[in-house]
Amino acid sequence: MSLRKDIYPNAKQRDLDRILPQLVTEILRAFQSCFTSEQDLIQFINRLPSREIVELFLDSGRFYAVSKSVITEPFVKLIMIFSMIERLTSAEIPYTEFKNWIRENEVLRAAVEENPDISDFHLSSLKQLIDSLREKYNEIYGFVRNILSYFTEYIALRHQIMIIASIHVKDTEILRRYPDQVTGVQPYSVTISDFATEHNLETSKGYMPVCYDWRQCCVDVNTCCWRSKKTCRLWIDDEERIKRLKTTIKLLYDFRSVFVHRAELPPFSEHPTFGMYKHNKKWRDCLILLKSSEFEAIFEESFVEYFKSKIDLE
Fold first, then answer.
1. How crowded is the C-beta side of 184, counted as CA atoms within 13 Å?
2. Which of 155, 216, 270, 286 is the most exposed place for a label (fewest CB within 10 A)?
3. Which residue has the higher pLDDT, 216 or 169?
4. Which of 296, 245, 252 is nearest to 275 (CA)?
5. Angle at 310 (CA atoms; ends 71, 17), nearest 5 degrees
6. Does the pLDDT of residue 25 top 80, yes or no?
């Protein structure tokens, strides 16, 4: 089986005959956990619904393959993966700057209709208008929102929960109790110290995921029991999971941003890493259990799922 003939129409055929086989080999090597053979990969590519989507797959797949072969530093891999996700999400909604977006006639017209008192040029009204436009703009072009949408749509549920549970940024008192010691969800009027004393349980100080609530979560020697569908509410509470995933993804994206914009090294590696991150202009400690290789594997699976969804839309 050979690749479809409609891709890269402006390229010379002899160049395609030389480049495309190498391209397929590079992508297969990078995504070897997702495809069983070269023919399996070619068959997948040929099923994609349009030339544009095929070229997006090949171009972004090659970028990832080349980057993966030369990048060794875990925090650089983190940046690369977020760059890939941004490329995929921006392919559906071409990016435009806020200052250009608000100049579009339909945007301004709708804004004026929704804010009739703007004609009075009140400063407060103008600020409210700008804030409302900024919110609408972020709903369309906001990177964090688009990345969260990508994570919820194309990353498997177990991996979403794993990512949340692997980022420990909540400095808190931890109740060491096993599943057979759970006596039911406790009311918020009950303190952790009173509960521990009453049931003869131990507590300790440590870092837990943002979703940790001693009243509901089971902990095994300071380890979150997220794998248990019976004890972790993230498996059944979609609203809670998405809320916590948004917080966690924003933190990981901030790791990317501090490296790119402030030349700071984020606490992200191939091993459990203690580090510091800045939140609301204050430095805080964190424990990152997520390995870079795990994050790579999760992304690679989601990359294929993203393009599978295009096939399903046919």
1. 3
2. 270
3. 169
4. 252
5. 60
6. yes
Q: Which of 8-12, 47-51, 131-135, 246-250 has the lowest mean pLDDT?
A: 131-135
Supply the pTM of this predicted model: 0.80
The DSSP line for 215-272 is TT--EETTEE-TT-TTT-GGGT-HHHHHHHHHHHHHHHHHHHHHHHHH----S--SS-
Looking up tokens 């089971």 gives 218
> How far is 129 from 112, CA to CA, in rounded Å?
9
pLDDT higher than 80, residue 45: yes
- Cα–Cα distance for residue pair 149/88, rounded to 1 Å: 11
β-pairing, 167-176 with 202-209? antiparallel
To the nearest 10°, report the CA torsion of 171, 176, 179, 181.
-130
Could you write out the DSSP letters of every residue in the chain?
Answer: ----S-SSTTS-HHHHHHHHHHHHHHHHHHTTTT-SSHHHHHHHHHHSS-HHHHHHHHHHHHHHHHHHHH---HHHHHHHHHHHHHHHHHHHS----HHHHTTSHHHHHHHHHH-GGGGGT-HHHHHHHHHHHHHHHHHHH-HHHHHHHHHHHHS-HHHHHHHHHHEEEEEEEEEEB-GGG---PPPTTS-HHHHHHHTT-EEEEEEEETT--TTT--EETTEE-TT-TTT-GGGT-HHHHHHHHHHHHHHHHHHHHHHHHH----S--SS-EEEEEEETTEEEEEEE---HHHHHHHHHHHHHHHHHHHHHT-
Range from 115-124, 165-174, 262-271, 276-285 carrying the lowest mean pLDDT: 115-124
Over residues 166-178, mean pLDDT? 83
* pLDDT band (50, 70, 90) for residue 129: low
The pLDDT value given to residue 211? 92
- pLDDT value at position 97? 59
